[in-house]
Specification:
The chain has 11 helices and 8 strands. The chain is of the alpha/beta class. Strands 1, 2, 3, 4, 5, 6, 7 and 8 form an 8-stranded mixed beta sheet that branches. Helix content is about 55%, strand content about 10%. The chain is flat, with a radius of gyration of 42 Å. The chain folds into 4 domains: about 1-25, no CATH class; about 30-90; about 90-315, 2-enoyl-CoA Hydratase, Chain A, domain 1 (Alpha-Beta Complex); about 320-345.
């Protein structure tokens, strides 16, 4: 046998005796089952961490896009409002116009129909060089006599300062009590035939719970410094002297109201026993009583009475962007409060 054959025979004998060679697995390695048990769980954890990081990146990217879009929308709205305001200011220079100021809703310091806002609108309306006339469009059931008094006084002042610009009050659905207090200062008053006009009176109302607390077995404890400090307390019986005092207050304010109406309307009023009793009348009846000068809408007054069809709104409007921001801030505060278990009401 040659040397090469001897070497082949030795190698073959070693392979026959070596179990690792027969199984096809080299020394130092592991089988598939052993690999799953000893090493694949580590790879699985690594894969899970990698996918979690990828998902987190995707979420962060989506939120980033959302907030970018929100910021873009916010600044777009601001730009639109600013451009609209610029356009409105520019439009004021295009010839003569009728200035419109709305008095809408209850007249009160904390409502849209407050003296500061209405007076600001009236001042700008009269001050504009292209104003041919001013229309004060009123749709109000009344409200604070103080706020109405402020507006009435300012109308008288503006009419004196700008004698060439006439002010017309145009009544919508209703112009009662404090609403008519304001309207009476106008040069002329117009209404729809079905409008409600009047209610020249003063009211103070409330409730009494004296019998109710007795039935409930509740003891009222009222401590004051000054014998009349707790007058008209709803849980205590009425006293004649307190009622008489309040009646005197109301009568005094009523007298002021009547004087303002007479001063504004003058000889046009047809005084009757019920005119200042607090009753209301239709616009058609108001013409007969001298509470109203004629029937017509704002556009009618602008076109037929003032002689200028173009109307420009000078009513100060609420800042809706500020209201939106306040709402967002309140919502965020509520979310934060609920997180830390704080109640906001």
């Amino acid at each position: 046998m040659s040397g090469q054959d001897e070497n082949n025979t030795i190698i073959g004998d070693q392979q026959a005796k070596d179990p690792w060679t027969q199984s096809g697995v080299q020394p130092g390695t592991t089988t598939n089952a052993e690999s799953l048990e000893k090493g694949d769980w580590q790879q699985d954890v690594i894969n899970r961490l990698a996918f979690a990081a990828l998902n987190e990146q995707r979420r962060a990217r989506r939120w980033g896009l959302f907030f970018k879009f929100l910021a873009f929308a916010y600044f777009t709205v601001i730009l639109w409002v600013w451009l609209a305001g610029e356009g409105a200011q520019t439009s004021l220079g295009k010839g003569k116009h009728v200035a419109l100021v709305d008095v809408d809703g209850v007249i009160s310091a904390d409502r849209d129909a407050n003296a500061d806002s209405i007076i600001t609108g009236l001042r700008h309306a009269f001050d504009d060089k292209n104003t041919a006339g001013v229309i004060m469009r009123i749709n109000s059931p009344g409200g604070s006599p103080v706020q109405a008094g402020y507006i009435n006084d300012e109308i008288v002042r503006l009419r004196s300062k700008y004698p060439d610009i006439r002010l017309y009050a145009v009544i919508g659905d209703i112009c009662a009590s404090g609403g008519y207090y304001i309207a009476s200062a106008a040069d002329e008053i117009y209404a729809d035939k079905a409008s409600l006009v009047g209610s020249i009176g003063v009211i103070m109302d409330g409730f009494g719970f004296v019998d109710a607390i007795k039935k409930l077995g509740v003891e009222r404890r009222l401590i004051t410094a000054g014998k009349n400090k707790g007058f008209l307390d709803p849980f205590s019986p009425q006293k004649k002297e307190e009622v008489a005092h309040v009646q005197g207050l109301l009568a005094n304010i009523h007298r002021q109201f009547i004087e303002v109406v007479k001063q504004g309307r003058g000889d046009r009023l047809k005084t009757t026993t019920d005119l200042f009793s607090g009753l209301v009348w239709t616009g058609e009846q108001g013409v007969e009583l001298g509470l109203v000068d004629g029937l017509g809408s704002s556009s009618y007054v602008a076109r037929e009475i003032i002689g200028v069809e173009r109307i420009v709104d000078f009513t100060p409007r609420p800042d809706y962007l500020d209201r939106f921001a306040d709402s967002i801030g309140l919502a965020m505060a509520r979310i934060l409060a609920s997180t830390v278990e704080i109640s906001i009401k």
